[in-house]
Design goal:
CATH architecture of the largest domain: 3-Layer(aba) Sandwich
Number of helices: 12
CATH class of the largest domain: Alpha Beta
Strand order of the largest sheet: 7-6-8-9-10-12-14-13
Order of helices and strands: HHEHEHEHEEHEHEHEHEHEHEEEEH
């Protein structure tokens, strides 16, 4: 931003200097230029002035490059819109947005392009956790701060990024497991064998790693919970359906399907119903329970319909949170390295009204479980 101000000023100085050096009082008394020439000069001057004004206006904007994962889910779409609606010219920003289409190599190319364009800040929602050291070193050498959104990176040097904003995926998984344990206890099934399958997210993504680990931690606490299978649904509805179809052919005793995002849950529900089975919470009578993450509008609509029994929130509205970090950095302030967002738990009914769990700050407490209503769905931003 400051560099662009300097270039505008230098350009203006060169123009003024050139005018002074070529101006000759004696020549000014010679025959006047034709009217057409004067008009052309006026038009050119106006165009030059407008160009300089536009360049100066852009120089006032903070340029942010956002390397997004893709558009694989409803959650991701809401996350993208959050950034686009926050980093607008009206708010003082120029946003350069790149959709990586789920490929790390595309994100690395985008980051290098941002560096070449000399942006003020780079925001990355990394596809996977590893393989970022080299390109982040390049951003650091260029003096461009990097902010991570949603997913995290495994780095040997934490100084390669300024801050991260998102949810604690391990805690999300553990909270979901705690809800399931409480639900089964209320149903009088705490000691019965529960057969589960997991439709994982994109392997290596922070949300997949954390949510898988969180549920695995709870499996260790409940020896009667049996994880029959785990396969990746890549966070998409189509792949989620494909994986669920395969699991249903292989296992005829599935009680609970643990989906690592809503879109996978939609695919799983389609597969279960297509197989002639019923989705719901009454596993004692053969229904298959689906639990999920994200709490998108469509996910909560399925929760209201009883098709998703529990949906743990993963708040996608990271744009304003990223802006808060950028404002603080612009003011020369230090920012927290890890910035966790508040998240809620929604369920089909009030069988479980509170879950005793550990939050993102490793503080144990009781957290409300909200029975979903149409009014809640209508009042949410995503």
């Amino acid at each position: 931003m400051k560099k662009r101000f300097l270039s505008v000023a230098l350009a203006a100085a060169v123009v003024m200097s050139a005018t002074a050096c070529t101006s000759n009082p004696a020549e000014s008394k010679t025959t006047a230029a034709p009217a057409e020439t004067k008009a052309e000069e006026t038009t050119a001057a106006e165009a030059s002035s407008e160009g300089e004004q536009k360049e100066a206006a852009e120089g006032n904007l903070i340029t942010v490059g956002y390397a997004q994962v893709g558009a694989e889910s409803d959650w991701r779409t809401a996350n993208t819109e959050s950034f686009k609606s926050t980093f607008t010219e009206e708010n003082g920003y120029k946003l350069i947005f790149d959709d990586a289409q789920q490929k790390q190599e595309n994100q690395i190319k985008a980051i290098r392009s941002f560096i070449q364009q000399d942006v003020d800040y780079i925001v990355v929602a990394p596809v996977v956790e590893t393989g970022w050291e080299t390109v982040l070193e390049e951003a650091k050498e260029a003096g461009i701060p990097v902010i991570l959104s949603d997913r995290q990176m495994q780095l040997s040097d934490d100084s390669l990024y300024e801050a991260w904003v998102g949810g604690n995926f391990v805690k999300e998984g553990e909270t979901c497991g705690d809800w399931l344990a409480d639900y089964l206890e209320k149903q009088g099934r705490a000691d019965e064998e529960i057969n589960m399958v997991t439709i994982q997210g994109t392997i290596g993504a922070s949300a997949q790693v954390g949510r898988t680990e969180g549920m695995e931690n709870k499996l260790k606490e409940h020896s009667n919970w049996k994880m029959l299978d785990k396969q990746s649904g890549e966070f998409t509805q189509a792949k989620g359906q494909e994986v669920m179809e395969s699991m249903l052919k292989q296992y005829d005793n599935i009680n609970v399907v643990y989906c690592e995002n809503d879109n996978e849950a939609f695919g799983a529900i389609d597969a279960i119903e297509a197989a002639g089975k019923t989705v719901g919470s009454d596993i004692a009578n053969g229904e298959i329970m689906v639990i999920s993450f994200d709490t998108t509008n469509a996910g909560l609509t399925d929760t209201l319909a009883g098709k998703i029994t529990c949906d743990v929130e993963c708040n996608p509205l990271h744009g304003p949170r990223a802006e808060e970090l950028i404002k603080a950095l612009e003011a020369g302030e230090e920012v927290e390295k890890l910035n966790y967002v508040d998240e809620e738990i929604f369920a089909t009914d009030d069988t479980v009204d509170k879950v005793k769990a550990v939050n993102s700050l490793d503080e144990e407490g009781e957290y409300d479980v909200t029975p979903i209503t149409q009014e809640i769905i209508d009042g949410r931003a995503y």
